[in-house]
Batch of 3 targets.
Target 1
Amino acid sequence: MNYPYKKYRYRLEIEGIEQAGFSEVSAPDASIEPIKYREGDYPHTGYIKMPGLIEYSNVTLKWGISDATEFFEWISNVAAGTIERKTVTIILIDDEGGDKCTWVLENAWPCKYTAPDFSASSNEVAFESIELAHEGMKREK
């Protein structure tokens, strides 16, 4: 029997960033807004629907805070006017450690950074997150 792959084994590759790992990565998605069109002599009472522009959702990366500062530096550079776009690859891994499914985000750059919240009575890991905007997505496997 062919079982589906599990979503808890994955890795993320971002060119030029050495961040170790991520606790969560939101799923990328794409949507195409339909354009309704109708001419006056159209014989039916409905519309023709044509594909409009494609829109890609932002992807959020979440990790336990450490001494690594690459993501904060990346968004700081964007805030200072230097937008460095990178290729981001999300790879789903099977139980044996093999790469199974790959999604590539094109021209990604950070548009939101979130520092951890703090609570003196909490017994949890402190998480940072960054949201990446991108201009396209491909599935390679």
Target 2
Amino acid sequence: MHTPITGIFWEALSAGAAVTELLREGFPDADVYVVGVLTGSAPDLRDFLANLGIPTADAVYFNDCFQDGAVLLIIRIQAPRDERKALKAILRHGGILPPSYEELSTAV
């Protein structure tokens, strides 16, 4: 199994638009997750993200953004060719990739 593709969105509607695109592209509903908090305090996601195989630096970055109200999009990838589709959907809808994706975002 591949490490999930992840992105941060500052607008929940933009994350929703990315999800819609991913589902239209054929990603199974069970492989696309959106994590956000509507009210109250955001939980610490570092352990959760580490368990998904997200690199520590990215988990810290995502957790900091999440604590500030961002929405996290997580996409499980079943085949290597799906990685590019997922990255494009995140970027097309205003998502931000973590620091470790810097070289990938310029290749998309």
Target 3
Amino acid sequence: MSHRHGTRSIEYRPRQPEELALHAIVLERWPSVVARHAARRATPARFVDREFTKFIECGVPALGFVRVRCSDCGHDRAVPFSCKGRGFCPSCGGRRMAETAARLVDGVLPRVPVRQWVLSVP
């Protein structure tokens, strides 16, 4: 499916997280990390467990998707759920970064030439 958005053409290309090395490594190693913690009668921090578990499920159509329909052409597509992670998922982190940059450019930064800007957070 390809659409015109403004002056550029946008085509949705679903990613295949199961084919990525990072996904395979986390899928293989995360259960052993949890098992090692359990052997010590401990658990990983809840937010860490949630982040890794959601990353493993991110973008996998078999684990859930939403069907979207183009109001212009009527074409529909299944889009897998994302984890919306903040710290580990490269796909969701990249999307969040792009959305933040677009919001800053469109609504926060003045319409003047800008060479560089840096945000430092303690």
